[in-house]
UniProtKB/TrEMBL annotation:
One of its GO terms (biological process) is acetyl-CoA metabolic process. The active site is at 82 (proton donor/acceptor), 116 (acyl-thioester intermediate), 246 (proton donor/acceptor). Belongs to the thiolase-like superfamily. HMG-CoA synthase family. This is Hydroxymethylglutaryl-CoA synthase. CoA binds at residues 208, 251, 255. It catalyses: acetoacetyl-CoA + acetyl-CoA + H2O = (3S)-3-hydroxy-3-methylglutaryl-CoA + CoA + H(+). The gene is LOC103697677. Keywords: Lipid biosynthesis, Lipid metabolism, Steroid biosynthesis, Steroid metabolism, Sterol biosynthesis, Sterol metabolism, Transferase. Pathway: Metabolic intermediate biosynthesis; (R)-mevalonate biosynthesis; (R)-mevalonate from acetyl-CoA: step 2/3.
Length: 448
């Protein structure tokens, strides 16, 4: 099987969002903290009408329609999510309604969960299935769906919500270079959800930032060494055209790319540009721990990598900056931003992806792009994603309304016997939404 990977994508996010500048003022944070400090513009959130199940129903239905895929042609469906609605029944089983209707119940796969990494686990499962001897010739389908909400406090502006769907098969315009994968998994308590009565995580913000960067370093080293083993030459950031990171907030992405450049400098000083080499020289003897603490290194490496960031990373930042952290969907929304911004020039390029989920699981992997053939072409995927129009159609609400919505959702989390409001005017046609939860906690959805 050749070029197994992503054939098609579709993307959905709720129509309501709050501006970070307004939230900053409302929260009494210093001006610029969320917009410049975290690097975020806007944050999407679900109202009482939507959740991870409805968003995934919406995005899967839309993908099948837009690429005219027969639901009987799906042989495996995997969902990545960390938003718990039911501790036993998978989100995947909800999506089976779409396939049952066409007489297709022969669909493998369930949900994968580990913070923001579940979508990558789901994606690897589908790609591995297509590459394996149990493949039956049909498509795989991966769905990443999350609603990221935090308790009041410094983490609240780093929420977000979206669902993304990816069709998997051979001869894909976005194929996996499966030989180059670097993984790093360890046990830490940086972000977790031990309180089952609440949707909010417990988060050690500072620790989660350091864990993310340590995982990045470790994955990058392993990724490089695998590349070097197969290619017989050193890897540096100049060997990839784009880098796409899991994006909890944009500032961490800026720091991450600078960190890769610093790694290149440490591994082989002559692989970085002369000016950068001179500026990074004072940091060449820092221990690992010292390097994570050094503000000077952070500043200097970001400064020397800035022009490369603009070229190799900036195109991926659109959706994560506009929608916030979409947990499992975050890295794939960043990838969708690259397709949106650069689809006509991506043929032949390599994109390196870094997926991180607290707790922790992380992998760096590589994708190779080909223009592809309609409907599975990069330009058609960009058309279907329809990013600009979707962003423009959003409805900006005031922070007061956002906070009020979160209060209602706190109340509703885990509750039974309620109906949702009838006001669905903000939802576009074809959107699924929650109508009620009955006395047996069974959820009911309708399609607008
Ligand atoms: N203007 C410009 N920049 C400012 C301003 C201002 N007025 N005020 C603060 N800043 C800068 C800070 O200097 C800092 O930037 P730096 O990191 O370059 O120094 C940045 O804004 C954030 O300020 P902090 O004081 O560090 O923010 P705080 O500690 O209050 O919260 C945090 C940030 C920890 C990320 C919090 O939002 C959080 O816990 N989020 C959830 C956890 C998370 O996303 N972790 C990432 C990986 S794990 C995952 O994906 C869930």
């Amino acid at each position: 099987r050749k070029d197994v990977g992503i054939l098609a994508m579709d993307f959905y996010f709720p129509p309501t969002c709050v501006q970070q500048e307004a939230l900053e003022a409302y929260d009494g944070a210093s001006k610029g903290k969320y917009t410049i400090g975290l690097g975020q513009d806007c944050m999407a959130f679900c109202t009482e009408l939507e959740d991870v199940i409805s968003m995934s129903l919406t995005v899967v239905t839309s993908l099948l329609e837009k690429y005219q895929i027969d639901p009987k042609q799906i042989g495996r469906l995997e969902v990545g999510s960390e938003t718990v609605i039911d501790k036993s029944k998978s989100i995947k089983t909800w999506l089976m309604q779409i396939f049952e209707e066409y007489g297709n119940t022969d669909v493998e796969g369930v949900d994968s969960t580990n913070a923001c990494y579940g979508g990558t686990a789901a994606l690897f499962n589908c790609v591995n299935w297509v590459e394996s001897s149990s493949w039956d010739g049909r498509y795989g389908l991966v769905v990443c769906t999350d609603s990221a909400v935090y308790a009041e406090g410094p983490a609240r502006p780093t929420g977000g919500a979206a669902a993304i769907a990816m069709l998997i098969g051979p001869n894909a315009p976005i194929s996996f270079e499966s030989k180059y994968r670097g993984t790093h998994m360890t046990h830490v308590y940086d972000f977790y959800k031990p309180n089952l009565a609440s949707e909010y995580p417990v988060v050690d913000g500072k620790l989660s930032q350091t864990c993310y960067l340590m995982a990045l370093d470790s994955c990058y080293k392993r990724f490089c060494s695998k590349y070097e083993k197969f290619e017989g030459k050193q890897f540096s950031i100049f060997d990839a055209d784009s880098f796409v990171f899991h994006s909890p907030y944009n500032k961490l992405v800026q720091k991450s790319f600078a960190r890769l450049y610093y790694n290149d400098f440490l591994r082989n000083p002559s692989s970085v540009e002369k000016d950068a080499r001179e500026k990074l020289e004072p940091f060449s003897t820092l221990t690992g721990d010292e390097s994570y603490q050094s503000r000077e290194l952070e500043k200097t490496s970001q400064q020397v990598a800035k022009h490369l960031y603009d070229e190799k990373v900036q195109p991926s930042t659109l959706l994560p900056k506009q929608l916030g952290n979409m947990y499992t969907a975050s890295i794939y929304a960043a990838f969708a931003s690259v397709l949106h911004n650069k689809h006509s020039t991506l043929g032949g390029q390599r994109i390196v992806m870094f997926s991180y989920g607290s707790g922790l699981s992380s992998t760096m992997f590589s994708l190779k792009l080909h223009d592809g053939q309609h409907p599975f072409s990069l330009s058609n995927i960009a058309t279907v994603l329809n990013v600009s129009e979707k962003l423009e159609a959003r409805h900006v609400v005031l922070p007061e309304k956002f906070v009020e919505t979160l209060k209602l959702m706190e109340h509703r989390y885990g509750a039974k016997d309620f109906v949702t409001g009838k006001e669905t005017s903000l939802l576009s046609p074809g959107t699924f939404y929650l109508t009620k939860v009955d006395s047996m906690y069974r959820r009911h959805y309708a399609k607008k």
